Give the backbone structure.
Amino acid sequence: MKKLVVLTGAGISAESGIKTFRDSDGLWEGHDVQEVATPEGFRKNPALVLEFYNQRRRQLHDVEPNAGHFILAELENHFDVHIVTQNVDNLHERAGSTKVLHLHGELLKVRSTRDEHHILDWTTDLVLGDTDKNGHQLRPHIVWFGEAVPALEEAIDLAEQADFFAVVGTSLQVYPAAGLLHYAQPNVPVFYIDPKPAIIYDLRNPLEVISEPASTGMVVLKERLLAKS
């Protein structure tokens, strides 16, 4: 079974009602990103940061996967599908995808501020005073700006093994995730689905751009992949 590696971004979740990472004014839900998505912001005002992610977590309970998510899950019937996502929601899993690698963490998990490997499932609000077993405050299991991306090496390995590589719903502006498609082998077809696709420079691969939202673009991608398999 051929390996399909898919990099997904905010665009696929936006169609389910989850706002994209930053609005055109550079704010995220009315907040400066430096306030709510950096270690410095957390040290300065941990209560604000915790409540910000509490709101994101609550929102996640009110949305559902969309057609784009479901088609990716269906493709597991034809390909060895590995999703590498920049999104912190669980919509891929809820749609039925079984191999999902979260580059930037997960909303429904938290971790110790002292031991980054002490990770817990978490579905409710996280507040000051919620601690690990040793009394250390818990924080969102999110990769903030300025922090290392632990899953990056695994993502690169997947990209290097791909028979097909697809990019869905991302502006390709956030690194290092945006550079993953350049690790695909030179003969591997690359498909890029986004209503406002970025220009991709220095790509060695055959590229097809599908200038559509994820839900309709995935219909086209499925047709293309099945024709090539």
